[in-house]
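Recall that a protein's primary structure is simply its ordered list of amino acids. Everything else, from secondary elements to tertiary packing, is in principle encoded there. The following example makes that idea concrete.
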Amino acid sequence: MKPDLPESPAPADADARRAVAPVICYPVDTLPRPDLAGLRAARAGAHKTGEVLVPPREARMFRVPAGHFFRIACTKGPQVGDLNLWNAADLSERFYSGKTRALHGTHLSTGDRMWSCLPFLRPMATITDDTLDWYGFDSFGGSVHDVIGTRCDPYTHRLLSGGNYHHCCHSNLTRALAAETGLPLAEAEGHVHDVLNVFMCTGFTRDTGQYFMKASPVRPGDHLEFFAEIDLLAALSACPGGDCSAEHSSDTAACFPLLVETLAPAAPPRGWAPPPRNGYGA
């Protein structure tokens, strides 16, 4: 954290240094854009193949074949969720929130993709529909569906409060992955990674640059929908903070279930094929 009062004197050209224009680190003009019209045409004829209800303060696993869709929906009340994605055939390929953030920005919406880690670096899922895209960025700098936070975890909770809490999203995701794969908890924990914070409203304070959260604008009927670019193993935790209006590791916050639906199109989107792993070094 920056000191309240700087300890170093400002140079004579301080204002000029601050006025230097920023440069986008990763220009994406050459990044292939998803064919949203084609994806939506395929989605229009899709039929539901399954659903998973994620209980409050718990996580559940689900699988999505490449070329299918999945939807995360708010059901009974405002609730945020923490989403992990893996290659269904190889847990070493998993969602890379940092590179996704660098390519698409701090918060995701329709047309953005969830990218996998190095050395794979390919789209895992594409967002095709977002009923909260109207929110934009508020006057605090907050927005919805972030890739800047990590996931609430018992280690940070212990560090800051001194207590033990067992329903942090990190713990929920670990237990769910262990139950699905048969891995020991300690081994499963190593595969849990930074998340897409679905429905969560977050940003950075303008004065101190600290990560903040505020009450999610999500309401029953809202959803975030994805197209699976590769075969996916996924986990979703219904955060113990509920709508995260006050805290995110709590047994007292109002929490609600989240619904995950999987859908199969009658035919793959025209011209679509699962993306190959990154070609570097090939």
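The longest helix spans residues 169-181. The mean pLDDT is 96.
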